[in-house]
Structures are given as structure tokens and as C-alpha cells.
């Protein structure tokens, strides 16, 4: 009897320690977020410039002419959602509403990132009907880039490939899957099915043309806008045309998981599972769950078009931004499939890593970004091993999803 009581006591202690550890991941992350973001708000008191990253050791901002501005107010909304402090709500509103003119943006696909991460969270947390109207107009702007012949939304305007020869007239990138959430939202609040039709068609076309047999993806697919024919399949920010760019894989996992949530279509769920399993089963995934910037960087059989120097790095850089996106997606995907525990476990492993001193910046360092060690584009020699605002955004989103699950 005494032995049984002792075992029960030990189990209770272990369970208690596990719960505290799980709470610590969330509380540690948001405590650091409050400290860092408070300092950023003091450094840039007005929303005329938006924090993006670090360049040459200094804070690099953008002035509403980029694709990343929506992530910063999104971070503020997530902190408010966690602590319900009205000061954070006021800051989030100010930094969100300054982006309203972007609702008319039509020259690239990233209006989804810009407006849904800011105004989407604002509407969800406040119910302000004006925010809904802004989002619907933003969705209309995104729809102007859709072409029925190609069956997808044009991501970028004309540009040339890395080889300087191939011309991309209608390039579509895997990142574009993330912007479909804005369109699904517009159909839900207006009852107009055109937005969801475009989103579904884009997701179908992407599933058909953007993936390899192993469910890794090409960053860029270039179409003939008159016939819809695929002209090129290539990379832009990954290592080579046949490699698996980590953040691109994370966009795919997240995008198809979200598309399944909005449609309950099995083919979208199958894509989410396949792309997630590619990630989890990859032999080159580090033990801590934070991927190298490209799963195949420097490996035999992968030849880049850009000027790659193997001596460039002593170690292949990790990408915390890809890890954060994937963690958030895994936590949602786990709820949609039998045996989803493996996705929850993968997300927890990532969040424990990102919440450790290896990736979580010390207070007052890192130009007051939350996470360290992300990668923008190594081929462009841009944003290598630096913080990135979207890494912080998806990290906080993943922490909120994780926290919600722990409370159930």
C-alpha cells in the first residue's frame, strides 16, 4: 500500500512538473515579447516605419512599401490576446489602422499578409465592422491578380530567373497559399462565393503544378498567362531548383491546413498531411526541430543557379521563421487527423527550442526582436542569420495555439 502511494505521489509530481514546463514555454515567450516589443514601440513611437529585421547591426524598417508590415501589428494583437492589457490593444489599433491605404494594393499578392495579419486579428478580437469592410476591399484587390487561364493568382510581376535568361511572365510562388485565408474570410462575411472560388482554384492549381512526387515544392512556377501552360519550375530563395526550401515547405503545410479548415475538402487535408510528413520524416531535419534554411543546402545532386560558395558558412544556417510557421501549422493540423499527436509533439519540440536561449533573444538585445537565427534569402545575400518580424509573428501565434490546447 505504501509503495502504491509512493508511486502515485511520484506520478503527480512528474505531471505537475510537465504542466509547469508547458506553461513556462508560453509565459517565457510572452514575457520576452512584452519586453522586446515595448522597447520597439519606444524606439519607433509612430507607425510611419515598421520593424522588419536587422541590417549591419541596426534596426531595419520599411515604410509601407513591403510585404511584411502587417506582421508587426499582428504581434501586438497576439500580445493583447494573451494578456488582455488595454495598452497593447491601443498600440495594436494604432499600428493596424495606419495600414488601411494598402487595401487598394494590387501590384503583388502579399496584401493577404499585410491586411489579414493586421486587420484580420483586429476584427477577430474587436468585432469592429469597419475592419471587416477593409478586409473585404483588400480581398477584392487580391482578386485582380487572378487569371482563369492559369487558375491561380499571380504572385509577382515580370522578372527574370537566376540564370538571367528565363523570363517569368506569370510567376506564382508557394508563399501565395498563405494569402488565400483573406479570400475565404471575404466569402464568409459577404456570402459571395467568388472569393472562395478563386482561393480553391489557386490551391488546386498549386497542388497540381507546384509539388514534386515526394511533396516537397518548387518555390516558383511560371505560367503562360494566355494558355495556362507551365513554362518553368524553379527556386528563388532556396538552394536550387530541385531542393526543398524550408520556409516554402512551411508555407505549404500551413496553407493547405488552413484551406482544409475553411473548406473541409479531403484533397486539401491530404496535401497538408503529405507536406507535413515530408518535413517530419526528412533525414536532414535537426534534432531540435528547427530546420536548415534549405533541407538540401550544399548536398550532392543539388546545383544552384546563383553564385554559391561552399566556404560561405562554417555551418548551414538555421531558419527560425520556417520553424515558427511550421509549429503553428502542426498544432492546427493535429486536430484534423487521427494520430495527430505526432504533429502536436513536433510543434512542442520546436516551441521548446525557440523558447530556449539558443533562439530566444535576451531582453534588450537583437534590436528588440523576439527570435534570433532566421533567414530571408541567402541567394540574394539578404537577411542571413538575423531576426525577422514574421518569425516573431508565427512564434507568438504558435504559442497561443499551444496554450489553448494545454488548457483543454
UniProtKB/TrEMBL annotation:
Key word Hydrolase present: yes
GO MF annotation terms: chondroitin hydrolase activity
Domain of life the protein comes from: Bacteria
Binding site for substrate: 110, 175, 235, 247, 251, 377
This protein's UniProt keywords: Hydrolase
Membrane-traversing stretches: none
Active site residues of this protein: 110, 175
Hydrolase keyword on record: yes
Gene Ontology BP annotations: polysaccharide catabolic process
UniProt similarity note: Belongs to the glycosyl hydrolase 88 family.
Protein name as catalogued: Glycosyl Hydrolase Family 88
Organism name: Bacteroides stercorirosoris
Upper classification of the organism: Bacteria, Pseudomonadati, Bacteroidota, Bacteroidia, Bacteroidales
